[in-house]
């Protein structure tokens, strides 16, 4: 993933000015620096994988439907031949 420039000193100063204790402000900064965030590229990649999965499912369902319909048609034809000679 790409890194995003982030002024940690200014972040800690902003927290301190708003009344957050110094140790807690530093802990917030450390937690934020350790966290990973999704970039636009990450989101696009995830979206493409989801779209591919949806297309695979749609094709599978369409094929299953076709097989079912053909099977029922053959069953009906078979029943007509056997039951009504």
Please, could you describe this protein's structure?
79% of the residues lie in helices and 0% in strands. The protein has 85 residues and is mostly helical. The chain has 2 domains: 1-37, no CATH class; 38-85. Helix 1 (8-17) runs antiparallel to helix 2 (22-34).
- What is the count of distinct domains? 2
Number of strands: 0
Quickly count the helices: 3
Share in β-strands: under 5%
Low-pLDDT regions: none
Q: Give the class from helix and strand content and strand pairing.
A: mainly alpha
**Helical residue percent?**
over 70%
CA radius of gyration is: 30 Å
Describe the global form.
Answer: rod-shaped
- What order do the helices and strands follow? HHH
Cα end-to-end separation = 71 Å
Task: Briefly summarize what is shown.
The chain has helices spanning 8-17, 22-34, 40-83. It is mainly alpha-helical. The chain is rod-shaped and about 95 Å long.
Question: What is the secondary structure topology, with strand pairs?
Answer:
Layout: H1 8-17, H2 22-34, H3 40-83
Key descriptive features of the protein:
3 helices; 85 residues; mainly alpha
